[in-house]
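We treat protein structure as text, and this decision shapes the records that our systems exchange. Below, we set out a record of this kind in full and without editing:

***
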Amino acid sequence: MFAPLQNDSFLRACLRQPTEHTPVWLMRQAGRYLPEYRATREKAGSFMGLATNTDFATEVTLQPLERFPLDAAILFSDILTVPDAMGLGLSFQQGEGPKFAHVVRDEAAVAALAVPDLDKLRYVFDAVTSIRRALNGRVPLIGFSGSPWTLACYMVEGGGSDDYRRVKSLMYARPDLMHRILDVNARAVAAYLNAQIDAGAQAVMVFDSWGGVLADGAFQQFSLAYSRQVLAAVKTEHEGVRIPRILFTKGGGLWLDEIADAGADVVGLDWTMNLGAARARVGDRVALQGNLDPNVLFAPPEAVRAQARAVLDSFGAPTAGSGHIFNLGHGISQFTPPESVTALVDEVHSHSRKLRASL
């Protein structure tokens, strides 16, 4: 059904197998920093118009691959598609970010929550299949979802938040309700990711974007436990082929050892972690992904190249049983100059080859 892979370096690094260079892709690589994305977004009329249209979603997913020799594509979608399918009424206002028409803050709203009918997310799965076909084997396709905790933050807050006051208040005052939300979310996320795999995703990633706002103890109970539940239910292979699973917790460095034992093949790191120290801690349990500060990309090209080399040198040359996927420590900024990405990808590929040659 799909063309054979021409570049499988990303998948091999995820599984801690040898690669000729360190593969690189960027969180939010299809996005507002690219003028061609902005033009397509204008044609679509709205963010949801873009995300729910198979042709547009395919077009913008492939746009960064036309500019840069990236080693993986990631589905263009949003982490909030799952709660939207639960009937919460997602919308995006220009300059304001996501908003939900209905929030989940009381017993009645929590009791009404259920794993959504996946047919409501058919547009996502159709996009996965369309993108996989359009890639024609060039690079692997990554599917993704928000973590149960991160989705709950938006569902309770009604949108983004600076202080997470409402969701934390519910968590501390009514942990029973919070656990009910998180269990529904975990079952929904696992089903959603499995459906993406069935549609053609060759790896999947769980974005625990707001796990790091929790206190020690609360993180393990309300975030990591449910990411673990998701990972235990997500397929490890499809049609005889391994499907790597990535877990990224922004602000999760304190809990690296526990995250590495959560069941993922790859642990994503934000830019606050020392990559070499992280490698020493996780050993050969998982591959690592990351972790350049996204703001490095506002520096001149030579500085971008120097910082890319520093990340690669910190990890060191891969050895048997280790794996590194180069990425940013969080999503690329909409204000990033595309020429900085050109310099970054080129330096990652060239310097990582030199590191391997030095072995």
In short: The chain has one domain: 9-270. The chain has 15 helices and eleven strands.
